[in-house]
Amino acid sequence: MPREHHHQHTDGAQNATLELKTADGTLSGSMKSPQGGVDFDGGSVSGDDLTWTAEMTQPMPMTLGFTATVSGDTLNGKVKFGAMGESTMTGSRA
């Protein structure tokens, strides 16, 4: 289920395409943005709630932690930028 994903942080709004795959309560997928792309697996799904982490390498190495809720064709949640804080994110099905 590809979704356009947008989040706001100190560098301004960032856009990315998020592709999610679910199977038996697990979540995997990929994120692609102008800064690069990353695949992830090992996430979880519980009802409409999603949780996953991704290892970013550009512009600097960092573990990103995501929590989100899906409602219809929209996704809302938060992304934690390691020790650098967190921001909100929104998305819609592409």
What does this structure look like?
- There is one protein chain.
- Strands 1-2-3-4-5-6-7-8 form an eight-stranded antiparallel beta barrel.
- It has 94 residues and is an all-beta fold.
- Strand 6 and strand 7 form a beta hairpin.
- 0% of the residues lie in helices and 78% in strands.
- It has one domain: Beta Barrel (Porin).
Structural class: mainly beta
Overall number of domains: 1
Any guess at the CATH architecture? Beta Barrel
Helix content: under 10%
Taking the sheet with the most strands, its summary is: 8 strands, antiparallel, barrel
The top-level CATH class is: Mainly Beta
Write down the overall mean pLDDT. Answer: 83
Number of strand elements: 8
Strand order of the largest sheet: 1-2-3-4-5-6-7-8
Rg over alpha carbons:
12 Å
Principal-axis shape equals: globular
C-alpha termini separation: 8 Å
Q: Which regions have little confidence, pLDDT < 50, spanning 5+ residues?
A: 1-10
How many helices does DSSP assign? 0
DSSP strand content: over 45%
SSE topology sketch:
Layout: E1 2-9, E2 12-23, E3 26-33, E4 36-46, E5 49-56, E6 62-71, E7 74-81, E8 86-93
Antiparallel strand pairs: 1-2, 1-8, 2-3, 3-4, 4-5, 5-6, 6-7, 7-8
Brief descriptors of the model:
single chain, 94 residues, Porin, 8-stranded antiparallel beta barrel, 8 strands
Brief sketch in words of this structure:
The chain has 94 residues and is an all-beta fold. The chain has a single domain (2-93), classed as Porin (Beta Barrel), CATH 2.40.160.
